[in-house]
Give the backbone structure.
Amino acid sequence: MKRVVITGIGIYSSIGKNLEEVRKSLYNGKSGIILDPERKTYGYQSALTGFVERPNLKGILDRRSRVCMPDHAEYAYVSTIEALKNARIEKDFLRDHEVGVIFGNDSSTPAVIQSADIVREKRDTKLIGSGSVFQSMNSSVTMNLSVIFGLRGVNFTLSAACASGSHAIGMGYMFIKHGYQDCIICGGAQEVNLFCVASFDALNAFSKKESDPKGASRPFDRNRDGLVPSGGAATLVLEDMDHALKRGAPILAEVLGYGFSSDGVHISVPNVDGPVRAIRIALKDAGMKPEDIDYINAHATSTPLGDENEAKAIDRIFGNYKPVVTSTKSMTGHELWMAGASEVVYSLLMMQHSFIAPNINFTEPDEHTGKLNITNRTLKQEINVFLSNSFGFGGTNSSIIVKKYT
Amino acid sequence: MTREDIIKAINNFLTEEFEIEESHIKPSARLRDDLGLESLDFVDIAVIVQKEFGITLKGEEMTTIKTLNDLYEYIIKFMNN
């Protein structure tokens, strides 16, 4: 089996448009949540959202590329440029090697709506234009990135609801571990626009704390009342360790374990058993014990039952050791399909800079979350090994274990 | 619209929307070889022509349009009818 390392990361999110901005936000506990009044005019129950500015790629990418990209492909382009630069991968390398791309993504909304509107109104598909079909597919991000960067390896999108980004890393890890690819650009992307989370809002799942946007996402806190949707993109370059060493690449960390499971119970309500099994599989895959984990980046989205059940799952496995637990969603909101990838990037930044970002807005635990070692202050602490959890609709669970490279 | 207005409107969307340099805009320019337009771009040209001139271009008719002058004349002919 090959050892799988991370040689480059990139991020574009509500708390920063690059690694340095995001590092500062994480350290300072800065929230990226705003109230978007326009959502109210469209009947949203909650107008809270992570604010992600659309990058201006005119003059950077040609028209044909831009016409085919939805907003989350643009975010992913920016985060991938940063990751490739950090991994010291240039165009020549991509042309001469079989580099793959696997991203987590599970929706691409505006182009679907706009094309349907045109057909309904005009009764003429010729008026839809050329970009819509490429923008509207779930695989939009990977199809665009593979063409723009000239990638020649494995190329697909992984859809697994809010665990999409995490499973994408897990899938890249499996491909490299088993020797099928030397290098894969992995990540997650999440659209942020007026329509993409309307049907999610219909479930009454979003926080109603509109008078206090920065205090609305409060994972594990007793007064949590729902998640805040957000988005952006995160990229990680995964590579066979020998391959990375041979080309003199900077090695940030090693992916040691990937655990996965399905609850098999309810379409939207997570349980305890499924996450417990995913975490245990990841630990076994990594050859580690619960006491080896220094930090857990929880999935915790700020929903009452979801956080409670994750707290129970973490307590069941780690109750005797109590590693520090935080949810960076307290700052970013829930980055949905991207979250599993971005939260590994956030944890890697903490690992690189020896701190644990605060679980902001955690002011009062409840009877379950009180059993965890959650910090609402920034801790200056070495992280040798972290666990990142991601769970999604349909009971899909993914856990990733990453170790500092020494 | 006058003939000049039509030509100006076509040239405008080619430079603004398709980002073709003005120096390349000549009646004799071949749409594919000189202006770098490809099959997907013709799909978008059809949308713009509909919006600008109210003309619905048909795919099979588009194949006869090889140069910029062909495009000018095609639209001018439609507008005059």
Observations:
- Chain B has a mean pLDDT of 93.
- Chain B has one domain: 3-80.
- DSSP finds four helices and no strands in chain B.
